[in-house]
């Protein structure tokens, strides 16, 4: 459970924020919510180690390494050389004692297969988690989040017309869309892509929704409910002035940290969308990434 904070009038609309960044484990965020479900399986299944992958700035790898560390499980992380930069997340991953293997991105897949095979041949029982917690379990975590949002609406007698969020592997968005379709709710869920381009980015979200819902929704309904904007992927790097200005603004005005990879970009994308929207109730999903806030703070000139 996370709070939904009322931030008042914003650009002719009313803004709320769901503070997934305040989930009470390892700096929170959507990866903490997903990991809770993965580790329920791990705890029930007598696994003795975990294998996953992600970059040096990965919130997912930080949370999974922390969950492993508290249980005394070895955490194997495969990280692409091209994105294995030093960050507060990578420093924590080291602190948690994870075994990180860095290989060129083209070799990530084979390396995962090799490490899993070697562990099994050595008599181990590894549990594999896809990067970012992608898959039906990750989707389920955000169906649950959607139901929390609905309970809030019922209790407070309000209706959110729009949900905005940062979308990466798309599992978080897929879970919210599944929750919406299962509930039959009218509203727009807008994913702001932090990396992938369309059509692939949107297709991945649609695939995740289909995988989770099976026969429970038809193609047309799923397509109509999946909005994935890719206008902030090129040229909006971590040093982008507009992203940093957005981060500064939200910190100064609301005291809430955003980061330059995910939530800062998503908030900026929401700002642009709100130019065309008036008088609506808008919910921004703060998907976490707090350690990356400090990277952005440290790295600025
Ligand atoms: C991973 C991540 C996302 C993207 O989540 P997906 O489910 O992969 O789309 C968004 N925000 C933050 C802070 C993240 O760490």
Report on the architecture of this protein.
The chain has 301 residues and is α/β, with parallel strands linked by helices. It has two domains: 189 residues, 3-Layer(aba) Sandwich (Rossmann fold), CATH 3.40.50.1100; 103 residues, Rossmann fold (3-Layer(aba) Sandwich). The protein has eleven helices and ten strands. The strands form two sheets. The chain has a six-stranded mixed beta sheet with strand order 1-2-10-7-8-9, sandwiched between helices. Strands 5-4-3-6 form a four-stranded parallel beta sheet, with helices on both faces. Helix 3 links the parallel strand 4 and strand 5. The site of pyridoxal-5'-phosphate (PLP) has 19 residues, from helix 1, helix 2, strand 7 and helix 6.
